[in-house]
Amino acid sequence: MKKSLSFIIILISLISCGNPIANYDNKKDNKLEIITEGIRLVNYGLKSSHVDVNDNNTLTNLWKEITSNKEVYSSSSLTPTYIIGRFDANSDYIENGRTRTKFKKCYVYKFENKAYLSAVYWDNKTGIGMRIRYRLIIINDKGEEHAWYGGGEDINILPDKNTDWVKYDFLFGYLKVNI
What we know:
The chain is an alpha+beta fold. It has a domain at 33-119 and 138-148 and 167-174. It has three helices and twelve strands, in the order H-H-E-E-E-H-E-E-E-E-E-E-E-E-E. It has helices spanning 2-18, 26-30, 56-67, and strands at residues 33-34, 39-44, 47-52, 71-73, 83-87, 93-95, 98-111, 114-123, 134-139, 144-150, 166-167, 173-174. Strands 1, 4, 5, 6, 7, 8, 9, 10, 11 and 12 form a ten-stranded antiparallel β-sheet that branches. The longest helix has 17 residues, at 2-18. This is Lipoprotein.
């Protein structure tokens, strides 16, 4: 009887452990599609506005509204012990007292089935051998800072609608989006 019971327990464990708990479709959430025409409902943090996607001044002002002088946290708990950096008044990202990434331009991308305001940054600090220096950032309604890399290594050539962005497999941080 003990052998049968042990066999059944082992069999149940193998079957239950062999099945994934959740089949998260990471590729679905990583897909970006640039929006280049029209007036769209654009999401940024918890806010949204109808915006002409080619009006860079308005897009820049909206981006600065959610990032300027804001802390970036490593945890969604948003407590002071988890501050890892901050955005300055120009929306440049400051890390350890230095400008890590420099704000360059805004675009609108479809991400997670919504039109999101995004910002392109020039990375002043990359690892050895890393030639791609541009980052695309989207802050969703949960305050999650999603990031992609792409666009090359020339500070004078901004990424455009043909840029192939590759998503990082981790979040860059969290912002308070309810203030």
